[in-house]
Amino acid sequence: MTEQAPHRRGVATAVLAGGLLAAVAVAIASTSGEDAPAPPVDSTGATRTLAPTDDPALRALTDRALAAINDRDPDAMRAVSCDPARVGAADGAPPDAHADLVSYPAVDGATAVAQVAVTAGGKTSTVPLTLELRSGTWCVR
């Protein structure tokens, strides 16, 4: 067995949990916020603001996802992920990395987006945590 060369912090973090922690990896690697998704647009082309949901199931899923991230628990990450096979171990996460809820998800059809503040290395960045409705069940994309 060969030993792998050390990875950069951003690369290692991106590998941690596949799709579930992709937003965390982006936040740790960059605090620019330039990659944030565009706000929804209505049929007239005007930007519309979506209010956070009061759906208890979506709020609970968001809370479970944040707990899985903060606990670096791959089993819990797989349980909330839309693609559990892409979730990896959390061994390479910066020890000080932490995610906090900024706002519960706003729903737009079969997609919902929560805002999460990710802190690592003394830097904090707000990133989207995207949830998706698949076959009647919400999961983290």
CATH topological fold name: Nuclear Transport Factor 2, Chain: A
Class inferred from helices and paired strands? alpha+beta
The CATH C-level name is: Alpha Beta
- Mean of residue pLDDT values: 75
Alpha carbon gyration radius:
16 Å
Number of strands: 4
The total tally of domains equals 1
Number of helices: 4
Range of strand content: 25-35%
- Low-pLDDT runs: 1-36
Separation of the first and last Cα atoms? 33 Å
Name a few traits of the molecule.
alpha+beta, Nuclear Transport Factor 2, Chain: A, four-stranded antiparallel beta sheet, disordered N terminus, 141 residues
How is the topology of this model organized?
Elements: H1 9-16, H2 22-29, H3 56-71, H4 74-80, E1 98-108, E2 111-120, E3 123-134, E4 137-140
Antiparallel strand pairs: 1-2, 2-3, 3-4
Helix pairs in contact: 1-2, 3-4
